[in-house]
Design goal:
Chain B: InterPro entries: NADH_UbQ_OxRdtase_su1/FPO (IPR001694). The complex is a heterodimer. In chain A, about 75% of the residues lie in helices and about 0% in strands. Chain B has one domain. Helices cover about 70% and strands about 0% of the residues of chain B. Chain B is globular, with a radius of gyration of 20 Å. By secondary structure, chain B is mostly helical. The chains are: A mainly alpha, B mainly alpha.
Chain lengths: ~230, ~325
């Protein structure tokens, strides 16, 4: 949220701070709500609540994209992040022991290091965005600058190389994930007959967190984990 | 003033459709299932062939006590039915039933992405219900729901992408404007993949593993009673309306028909959607439930390759006819 709002306020110098339009006010309010939801996501002690607050955060970002007329990006944001990534997260949380109520071990000793890294990353992003879009002003009144047509044209005319590079990167990640999960399977199969079962369960749990679609393999582990609770 | 009136009228109509169409499908399901299984079905409520059975069911649900289990996560447990139901209301806004601006709740530029994105959010309701109930059957149901969604989201998206490629647009009215009759055989594989994947996403039989009553009682909804349970059921039927409407718009040509397409386009849309809804009910009566591994296998080894083949075919034909 913060990088874009910073760009907005810088750009607002040319258009005046004192007469914000309705869209700008809505943008800032939604930004504040998104920021609040993000803070709760990382501070709450209840694991599943954190995942659900993440839904609110990502949804808030989608609304920000909508307000900037980037309709296509907004729906893709909902489709990929809310519809798939958070579902995967919840799936992982349900496979492990995600108790109802507070998790005493949900806190990390690394929190100051994490905070430092987060602040540094935010500062870098804000600096880059402010530097890049110093006086650019998005014209919200004219034809939508972020419509599907405009996004597609700029993506496949000006930014084809980064697009293809990203595709190759994702493909490599996918192949890597498959290789990792197959190796885990083989080592489990090599083990002795009785030890195989418990080994299989812990090994099978790992790939689901990395995004490998192997829910059928991880499913049998769930009931026994739940009963031992 | 006129604009505000226009918008509120559209919202009102969509809301009324949202409240009545799922009930009509529910009543049809009662009757069609009864006929297919050689029995009567509900016959007493309301006098004529039990037409008021769903109203009676609604009254029964409203009277029941609203129970939240002691161990449950109260707020999430209570919020889940709304999260499951509301996305379908939003999706209905974007489905055009006739040509022109007047026959759609709201024209959305990236319509396909909007409907698929928002439909995916509805599953979060089942996951929240499954986790927050503090019941192992609910949790298992939630897990199965998530596994099923992850498997079937991909073929559904790919099949929809094929139509978008064919039409050269991702707007739902735009796709219908570009529709020609020969798209029907051209996109038939994509249509079947989309419909089957949609059924799986709605957890309708034969893909009702997440709510398999003989194994895990009622999956994620086991602990729900009264109105909240009714909302989950309503979400399922609203989902049928949305899925049939979407399949009609994307693959069956929506308001296009052999004749009468000018003024009566919306009749065609409704007829096609109703025929699809009948098939949904028919499948429920006909096929046994798929096992979890069969579910995953069907998606990853059959539907995903088929939808990829459909995309390749769409691309080839598209290049050839240009």
């Amino acid at each position: 949220m913060s990088p874009t709002s910073a760009a907005l306020t810088t750009a607002a110098d040319t258009h005046g701070f004192l007469s914000p339009t309705g869209v700008e006010i809505a943008f800032l309010l939604v930004g504040l709500v998104t920021f609040g939801a993000a803070l709760v996501t990382v501070t709450t002690r209840q694991l599943v609540h954190a995942a659900l607050w993440l839904v609110a955060t990502l949804g808030g970002l989608a609304v920000e994209y909508l307000l900037l007329t980037a309709e296509f990006i907004a729906w893709v944001q909902v489709l990929i992040y809310v519809g798939s990534v958070v579902v995967l997260l919840l799936f992982g949380l349900m496979l492990t022991k995600a108790p109802i109520g507070r998790s005493p071990d949900a806190d990390s000793g690394n929190r100051w290091a994490a905070l430092t890294v987060a602040l540094a990353a935010a500062a870098t992003l804000i600096w880059v965005v402010v530097d890049a879009f110093r006086t650019t002003w998005i014209d919200l009144e004219g034809p939508a600058a972020g419509s599907t047509k405009a996004t597609g044209e700029s993506l496949f005319q000006n930014w084809v190389l980064p697009f293809e590079g990203l595709s190759v990167l994702l493909l490599a990640a996918l192949v890597g994930a498959i290789v990792l999960s197959r190796q885990a399977k083989e080592t489990a199969a090599d083990g002795p007959g009785t030890g195989c079962r418990s080994g299989n369960r812990t090994e099978a749990g790992a790939p689901s967190a990395t995004g490998v679609p192997a829910p059928a393999a991880t499913e049998p582990g769930a009931p026994s984990e739940k009963e031992s609770r | 003033m006129n604009d505000a009136l226009d918008v509120s009228l559209r919202l009102l109509i969509v809301f009324v459709v949202f409240l009545t169409f799922p009930l009509i499908i529910g009543q049809t399901e009662h009757k069609v299932m009864a006929h297919m299984q050689g029995r009567l079905g509900p016959m007493y409520a309301g006098g004529f062939h039990g037409w008021a059975q769903l109203v009676a069911d609604g009254v029964k649900f409203a009277q029941k006590e609203d129970i939240v289990p002691t161990g449950a996560d109260r707020r999430i447990f209570q919020l889940a039915p709304a999260v499951a139901l509301l996305p379908y209301l939003l999706v209905l806004l974007a489905i055009p039933i006739g040509p022109g601006e007047g026959a759609v709740g709201e024209v959305i530029d990236a319509g396909i992405f909007f409907v698929l994105a928002v439909m995916g959010v509805g599953v979060l309701g089942s996951l929240m219900a499954g986790w927050a109930s503090a019941n192992k059957f609910s949790l298992l149901g939630g897990l199965r729901t998530a596994a099923q969604l992850l498997a079937y989201e991909l073929p559904m998206l790919l099949a929809a992408a094929s139509v978008a490629m064919a039409a050269g647009t991702v707007s739902l009215p735009g796709i219908l404007d570009a529709f020609e009759w020969w798209w029907l055989p051209w996109q038939i594989v994509g249509a079947i993949v989309f419909f089957v994947a949609g059924l799986a996403e709605l957890q309708r039989p034969p893909f009702d593993m997440p709510v398999a009553d003989s194994e895990i009682i009622f999956g994620a909804y086991t602990e729900y009673t009264g109105l909240r349970f009714a909302l989950f059921l309503l979400a399922e039927y609203a989902g049928i309306v949305v899925l049939c409407g979407l399949t009609t718009v994307l693959f069956l040509g929506g308001w296009h028909g052999p004749w009468g397409a000018d003024g009566l386009g919306w009749v065609w849309t409704l007829l096609k959607a109703a025929a699809l809804a009948f098939i949904v009910i028919w499948l429920r009566v006909t096929y046994p439930r798929l096992r979890e591994d069969q579910l995953q296998k069907l998606s990853w080894t059959l539907l995903v390759p088929l939808s990829l083949a459909q995309i390749a075919l769409t691309g080839i034909v598209k290049v050839v006819i240009q």
